[in-house]
UniProtKB/TrEMBL annotation:
The keyword DNA-binding applies. InterPro entries: Homeodomain-like_sf, HTH-type_Tx_Regulator, HTH_TetR. This is TetR/AcrR family transcriptional regulator. It comes from Allofournierella massiliensis. Coiled coil: none annotated.
């Protein structure tokens, strides 16, 4: 896993813990990480 993927996963886990899985969006993960949705989907299908 590269650095961007690690940052996305770490951020997603933190947001899941804070808001729950169902209340966390891809947009929120991307915003907090500072990546675009295109970058997110490039690394995670």
């Amino acid at each position: 896993m590269n650095d961007i993927e690690k940052r996305i996963v770490k951020t997603a886990i933190e947001l899941f813990q804070k808001h729950g899985y169902n209340d966390t969006s891809i947009n929120e993960i991307c915003s907090v990480c500072g990546v675009t949705k295109g970058t997110f989907y490039y690394h995670f299908n």
